[in-house]
Amino acid sequence: MMNKEEIAPHVREIARVLEGKIDEQEIEKDLDNYLNVYKMSLEASKRHIVRKYGGDPNALTKGERKMLSQLGLSEQTVDLLVRVMSSTTREVTVGGNPKTILSGILADENGSTVKFTVWDVSKADLKAGENYLIRYAYTKEWSGQPEVHLGTRAVVELRPQDEVKVPDNVTVPQIAGGYSAPIVAKVADLKENMNNVTLTGRVLSLKPKEVETPSGKKTMFTGVIADETGKVEFTAWHDFGLREDEVITVTNAYVKGWKSIPRLSFGEKGQVTRPKVQFPTGDQLSQAVKKGIDELERIGWGSDIIITGTVVDIKKGTGLIFRCPECNRVVQKGVCQVHGKVQQVPDLRIKVVVDDGSAAITAVMKRDVTERLTGITLKTALDEARETMDPEGVGQRFEEMLLAKPIELRGNVISDDYGLSINVTDARILVPDVRTEAEALLGKIEVI
Length: 448
Ligand SMILES: [Zn+2]
Description:
Layout: H1 4-17, H2 24-37, H3 42-52, E1 64-65, E2 78-94, E3 97-107, E4 113-118, E5 131-142, E6 145-150, E7 155-159, E8 183-184, E9 197-213, E10 216-227, E11 230-236, E12 247-258, E13 261-266, E14 271-273, H4 282-286, E15 289-290, H5 293-299, E16 302-314, E17 319-323, E18 335-336, E19 340-341, E20 345-355, E21 360-365, H6 367-374, H7 378-388, H8 393-402, E22 406-416, E23 419-429, H9 434-447
Parallel strand pairs: 1-2, 4-6, 8-9, 11-13, 15-16, 21-23
Antiparallel strand pairs: 2-3, 2-5, 3-4, 5-6, 5-7, 9-10, 9-12, 10-11, 12-13, 12-14, 16-20, 16-22, 17-20, 18-19, 20-21, 22-23
Zinc ion binds next to loops.
């Protein structure tokens, strides 16, 4: 059963062959009748209608049936009898609008394979494992090979399983990664140096900023945009009329990074649209996102993340430390490696390794977080150190408090030459939930 939309290109083709002698509505009625009432094949119906009105059926475009190995790099119209070996949908942007396309691999009886792309999924929802007669396809070159495209003219017909028997030893090429279309990304997908990115998110905060440019003063905007996978800072180099709390889709954005933390940027070439979509609220998106450390290792960064794990190691430089007032470096016995003997400034810090069972991360806590977590202030630490004449004592107390304890950390995650680390903005030692652990244990026993 072909619907009106599928019939349309064929109606236009018949009208062209009949040189406008018969109007398209008449042709459409005829074609619909032959196809859907008399169940004639598409080709026979078209030829019949052309003949009926005194036209030349040979003037109709004939898609030539080819085997995949016979395909040229720029076929205008070709018919293929094939099996779909793989098929996945992809999100791309075409002319600034998001669009779903389908791509995968076709194989034929000879065991040849070729990549395909369907540009109108409503017309040809090719499913892996099914056989199809594809008509009016065309080809384009992709990495020196022909790629089959199914455009608006394409017609596909599902064929029986025994009609195409693909040899067992056919290897199906992977197509992921070879595609150069615009990237539709979630926040967690963002990586330094990405280009042509489309992202939908809610503007959580927004701040104008005056900057000097060669062409005079200019207002740009910075802020935070979020989706369900996380938050990212952005810079808009152009006034898009952004408002706080609105959901926007930006296209043609690019990603710059600082210490592996991406920043989304969009300028004159970028576009901002306001999609009507269901989206998590600002309150929901402002919450820190909980992630596994292995996942963070894969992603390489994270903005306002919560992780839970066990403190497995206390690093050197934990406790009462002294810094150079010039460069902030930690000094040893009042001597900065750059500035020599200085008037050292006391500080508190914690550096620990936390493991959640999937991977490990270095957690760095500055003075404010350290004081809140341990209840020991810099002043108490200094008093103690003076009393005991032992500046190392505070670090030892931190170790007793933290080592082997379950802990929850919140902060920004970066990765560099030293591996993954989190700049902690908030931390708390977890009281183990005995009941949950017992239940988990019982669960395990049941499984065994
Ligand atoms: Zn210094």
